[in-house]
Amino acid sequence: MSTRWVTVQKAAELTGLPATFFDERTGRSGRWPEGKVWKWFEGRKLIDSQALDNFIDRAVCPPSTRGRKKADQTCRA
Questions:
Q1: Does residue 64 belong to any structural domain of this protein?
Q2: Where on the tree of life does the source sit, at the highest rank (predicted)?
Q3: Domain-embedded: residue 53
Q4: What range defines the domain where residue 47 resides?
Q5: Which of 27, 48, 52, 72 is the most exposed place for a label (fewest CB within 10 A)?
Q6: pLDDT in tens, 23-44
Q7: pLDDT, position 9
Q8: Which of 1, 2, 4 is nearest to 41 (CA)?
Q9: How many domains, the chain?
Q10: How many CB atoms lie within 10 A of CB 11?
């Protein structure tokens, strides 16, 4: 069973990102919209795990230049 609304700490555990990452994006910066990706409930900040997945999937990200060799390079053992 998947839980839709999770605490910041649980979201950090599930994604492998630090809790400060969530606090920064849900705080004053307003990078993540309140009510769509996160909300306050009984004094706790909750993250909508389904909306977060959708938000990340739709986010425009520059291609990474780290960690992978270009296709024309081959690895020789």
A1: no
A2: Bacteria
A3: yes
A4: 5-58
A5: 72
A6: 888 887 778 888 888 999 999 9
A7: 95
A8: 4
A9: 1
A10: 21
